[in-house]
Design goal:
It contains two helices and three strands. The protein has a three-stranded antiparallel beta sheet with strand order 2-1-3.
Length: 74
């Protein structure tokens, strides 16, 4: 049986020592372990998110949103 996460976090990954990596999502416990092993390497964006789904949507921003079809002008 898989335990449920108490909360989720969004962080910005550091890629080869440079901050502008992509956003990522993990459980709070995983974030705490990453920070303990390598403090300050990744940048925390937001914590205390209730569900993984909500965290993924926030991390993605508007990327992948359905804006509908744009009709042709006649």
């Amino acid at each position: 049986m898989r335990k449920t996460a108490e909360s989720w976090v969004i962080y910005r990954m550091t890629v080869r020592g440079k901050i502008p990596g992509g956003n990522a999502v993990c459980e709070k416990g995983e974030w705490d372990a990453m920070e303990l092993s390598n403090p300050g390497y990744h940048a925390l964006i937001q914590s205390g998110i209730a569900t993984e789904e909500e965290a993924e949507k926030l991390a993605r921003g508007t990327s992948g949103d359905n804006f509908g079809r744009r009709g042709r002008k006649v």
